[in-house]
Amino acid sequence: MNIFKVGDKKKAVCETCQSLTDATFLLRNVPFSDGSGIVKKVLAGVCDKCDEVVLIPHQSTPAIKKQMDVQKKAVETRVPAHMVDMLNLASMELGGSTDFSNALIKYYLHNLSEDKTSVKSLTKYLKSDLAKGEAQKRISLKGRQVSQEINNIKIKTSIKSTTDVLKAVVLKINDDVFIHPKTQIINNLKGVAAAFA
User: Fold this and answer.
1) Which of residues 51, 71, 91 is at a domain's end?
2) Following CA atoms 187, 86, 175, 102 in sequence, which dihedral angle do they give, to the nearest 10 degrees?
3) Residues 100, 112: one domain?
4) Cβ-based neighbours of 16, under 8 Å, separated by 6 or more
5) Does one domain contain both 43 and 129?
6) Do 42 and 56 contact (CB within 8 A), yes or no?
7) Residue 87 exposed, middle or buried by CB count within 10 Å (0-12, 13-18, 19+)
8) Can you spell out the DSSP letters for the chain?
9) 93-149 tens-digit pLDDT
10) Is the pLDDT of residue 38 over 90?
């Protein structure tokens, strides 16, 4: 494996220039291709013509992995035991196992965050009797976008805490699956559960 230093040069194909070009290794902030984050001050090959990053040397992989792991840090909260039971029941109703419950929450977080599902009704769930109770069980979610999606929902709803966002989402899932069944959502979720199994 070649180890490159700042200032070293290498030939590389530049997508922007659409040609083989000289690249100089420099420390750069490099965004993830999906736009979900950025790795700061990582060694990268930069096109000498257009100043775009054209390659990442293998030696930069640990720094990139470290940043990705930070983004995958678990979001953890404690909720009343009956909420975990509701999630497990919904998961089974949709054809999944209890292991599907985290994917179910992440599905809702994504759709609520992206406005594919209205977030306006979330606050009403926090006023219900089911939102109350001693926090006895833990919900732990991992994923690169989970924290950002929860923050987006907080902004859109003025819900202050992560725990309250997750409580509201669990109660919405219960409402959509059991109380006021939404056929289209249920069918979509059955498909996701089948793929998850």
Assistant:
1) 71
2) -50
3) yes
4) 47, 50, 52
5) no
6) yes
7) buried
8) -PPP-TT-EEEEEETTTTEEEEEEEEEEEEE-TTSS-EEEEEEEEEETTT--EEE--GGGHHHHHHHHHHHTPPEEEEEEHHHHHHHHHHHHHTT--GGGHHHHHHHHHHHHHTTSS--TTHHHHTTSGGG-S-EEEEEEE--TTHHHHHHHHHHHH----HHHHHHHHHHHHHIIIIIS--HHHHHHHHHHHHHH-
9) 999 999 999 999 999 999 999 987 789 889 999 999 999 999 999 999 988 789 889
10) no
- Count of residues in the chain: 197
Asked whether the beta carbons of 125 and 175 are under 8 A apart, the reply is yes
Residues 79 and 134 grouped into a single domain: yes
Report yes or no: 67 and 37 within 8 Å, Cβ to Cβ.
Answer: yes
Give the bridge partners for 174, in sequence order.
none
